[in-house]
User: Fold these one by one.
Assistant:
Number 1:
Amino acid sequence: MERLHWPGGGNRVPTSICSQPCRPGERKKLVKGIPCCWHCERCDGYQYQQDEFHCKVCRLSERPNENHTGCIPIPIVKLEWSSPWAVVPVFIAIVGIIATLFVVVTFVRYNDTPIVKASGRELSYVLLTGIFLCYATTFLMIAEPDLGTCSLRRVFLGLGMSISYAALLTKTNRIYRIFEQGKKSVSAPRFISPASQLVITFSLISLQLLGVCIWFIVDPSHSIIDYEDQRTTDPRFARGVLKCDISDLSLICLLGYSMLLMVTCTVYAIKTRGVPETFNEAKPIGFTMYTTCIVWLAFIPIFFGTSQSAEK
């Protein structure tokens, strides 16, 4: 025996089998033409070892365990109130709500003074209501998605901006018609009374509400767990995202009416930029609309650019 020479130069007797047993999480891949020999192949990705010869992919809501011998549920995540992505917007929203309420209280206190009357107090209250809703919607966007939260998101996400832009559009349209009519005759244009302005504003707002009602009928609101958004290459980092069933396209369509009001209001703001200095309401509205357009142009690429973010 000591004079025998084995392959590799060793003195140890070789194992008389062609394949070693596979480890957990590995399947046997048989060698063609040699049925008793195999290669051990790791069940990788989202696969687990179904039996000694096969790997199988876990269900969409599951991922393989550490040694790929079975499947376990994928952890569910949502935007937490303690997250910096929530704390900063909530702080800004609280400051905005306090500032808005301060202005409302000031308007109510001096409701019958000439300066409040001259500012168009009826539309100012409508505008402040829209601004308040815009800030308050922040809390709905961070709250845990369920049937009630998702339904309220659909209603109020675009409503606050629609109310604000409808009030501003009615204001700028009134200013434009007054000065255009003044070039032609001394008679006042129609529908410039406070009651008429409110009717026009609420008519514009009702179109937003009508669109939301149709959306509820066509596609009822509900929450979902999205396993595709955070389905990473490494199963260990896979997460299911709890969110409302509102697609990016649906969200843009929801905000589309607000965009239309905003663009129309901007057009009127440009047309009224040459009014006399004493009529000082037009210039702040114009400045507001120009900056709003810039914000919206920045919002769209940022929104779609974060489509793969868990905190979206």
Number 2:
Amino acid sequence: PRLLSQFFFADERVTRVVAEINGLDAELDPQQYLVLLNQLHLSQAHLLAILERIMEECIPTQRHSRDYLVKFPEELLVDNLGNHMLFAAECLLAGTFLEVEEADGAQLRPQARNLLCSLELVRTVLREQSLSQPGSYPEPIRAVLIQFDQLFAEFELSYVSSLVAVKSPEEIYRQQEIIVLFCETVERALHLGYLTQEMIDGYEPLLMFTIPRLAIISGLLIYPEGPLSLEQSPEQMSRVFSPFYNLLKKGTRAQWGCDVGLTLSPHRRDLLRVLSEEELCLLERSLCTAE
């Protein structure tokens, strides 16, 4: 049950697969090479998962900040991101640029080298510790883990930044504003009886449509100075809604498009703003239906 013992056996598996790959001629047996490569990725992912648990147990308050993860696109925040970073570092060190430009790869290579050297040192000291005192983490091991954690975080941020456009602080703030708007919308919808707590607790699929629809109404009418303020330019609006800037303009000045399932007369301006309380309630209840 000890993490260091688990690490020892996981490290043994990685070492064994690497030895098999090194002893295989990939050109003569490409199918077996792909099988072993997949085994290597799985065994490395298992090793990194145990190492992550060891760091949480050994240096929980000395971990390098991962606040930068909020800058990453959501599609990159997957469970195997760490293993992907390790594979990328190995490719860079071997001179292979799979995803980044060659100039960026050349700049990243020193970081990749430092990261992989640090990982080898971590593997060595943890193996030795697992064979001597598998229940303790002396200060030299803690120092090695702290250094590896920092190098890993620095490489992860640098590599992803060279790969995709990370979010700016302004984009992150706008995203947080949308989160607040959705939360306020849900609280108001619960209060007015548009939604029930049971629907939320049960992850009712209809909510995927209902909440954004109601959030548009809230953003335009109830919180007009918030993230859906039409006084700002499309570039200043969150990327969630900026592509629909013109439709939002129509919603307040001429007609409410079919995106929300309701069409209003285009003959009067500011129709949403002159709705009576009863009309607004009817509109919002209509937006809560599946029709």
Number 3:
Amino acid sequence: YQAKMDFALKLGYAGDQIQAVLNKLGADALINDVLAELVRLGNKSESEGQGSASTTTSTLVPRGLCPKEIASPELSLEDEVVDNSDNLRPIVIDGSNVAMSHGNKEGFSCRGIQLAVDWFLEKGHKDITVFVPAWRKEQSRPDAPITDQEILRKLEKEKILVFTPSRRVQGRRVVCYDDRFIVKLAFDSDGIIVSNDNYRDLQNEKPEWKKFIEERLLMYSFVNDKFMPPDDPLGRHGPSLENFLRKRPVIPEHKKQPCPYGKKCTYGHKCKYYHPERANQPQRSVADELRISAKL
């Protein structure tokens, strides 16, 4: 009750108006329902003010939301969350994976990296790191074509892109494993990995890395020049994309229909209904389930 009261006070509503709405709807009412009722009262007072404007010199100004927020209270909540950059997780982008994906596996397209970085910048993220092997700075060759190579230099100057070390020893290139840089930084900073790679070799190195990759890997698709991550990164029963990118989920998740079979359900992770008893369990594959049962 107090949290709803404080939230509505921050939006500029009067205390007696908020209290009247909460008493009408009850303390268990959803915040969106409370906002909708406050908006309705604001519109009502606005129409009364316009009606009395002809008989009085002062106009009545409602203590409600601005017109944009009145039109969509849910949108105003989301906009407020997006503006809070302190709540956004750090982003670590697998540059080679993104560039090759944008180049249709035929070439290293640096423009794909720029599109992914721009998408996260528009979302309000400030802590973005892209890893690319240093040998990608070399001149493009027919067997390894690179397009828009100047983007790599530009992102490096902006302190967004980092080149992983590589050197030549007796004419042979020695390359450091860039995937380990990506997973290690994301794990240490409690961030998000942007890649279509599952990093199975690194999952087997450390148990904590395996759990982290399963819960923090953000896959994506390119539709021409549009970077598109999924709205449900961890499946239909997982968090939304907006909450997945945040340290503390703020936007309320849509209510899911519970499974009628409950704990007796035999469909496992393939069940399309919501299982509250499985909420904190990672979505393991069938192979992982067999390995665990074999150990037991």
